[in-house]
Specification:
It is a single chain. 36% of the residues lie in helices and 23% in strands. It is of the alpha+beta class and 165 residues long. It has one domain. It has a 6-stranded antiparallel sheet with strand order 1-6-5-4-2-3. The radius of gyration is 16 Å and the shape is globular. The N and C termini lie far apart (57 Å).
Amino acid sequence: MPDKKLLSQKLLYNQYIKPHFIALNSIVSHKIDIADLINISDTINLREKAQELQHKPLYEFEIPFTEKKTIKFDNFLQALHEQNDQPVLVWIKHTIDCGAYKMNSILDLNTQFSFTDPPGDIVVFVTNDNKDKLLLDCYVNQDGEEMLLIEIQGDNWINSARDFT
C-alpha cells in the first residue's frame, strides 16, 4: 500500500505545480524549467535551515508598488548583492509542495512583475548561506494604493535596507 504522506505530497505537487511554475517565471528575470526546481525533500530541509534567520535583526519599510521598477530600487538590489552575493532561494506560496528555486543572486529578481503575478502576494528570498532574507509583500493600503512591504533580515543586507529609506 502506498505511503499516505507520499501520496498526499504527490497530489499537492500535481495540483499546484503549474501556478507555482508560472509565478516563479514572473518573479525571476530569466526563464526557468520545472527541472530547475529543488526536490521537495531538499526543499523541506532548506526551509528548516532558513528558520535560523528568525533571530536575526529585522528592518522593514514600505514603498509604492511601482517604485520597485525604478533605478533607485535597482541600486538597492545591487547594494544587497554587494553585501552578500550568494545564490538566493525563492519561496512563494506553494514552494513547499512543488520545490524551491535557486537564483544565481538577488540580481535575478524581475522587478517588472505585476501586482497580481505572485500568488499569495508574498515572495521571500533567502541567501544560500542563510545569512540574509528579503521579503516582499504586495498589498493594497486603506487608500486603495498598491504597496510593497519590504522586510530585510540577517547579517548583511540589513545595512543596505537602511540606506534605501
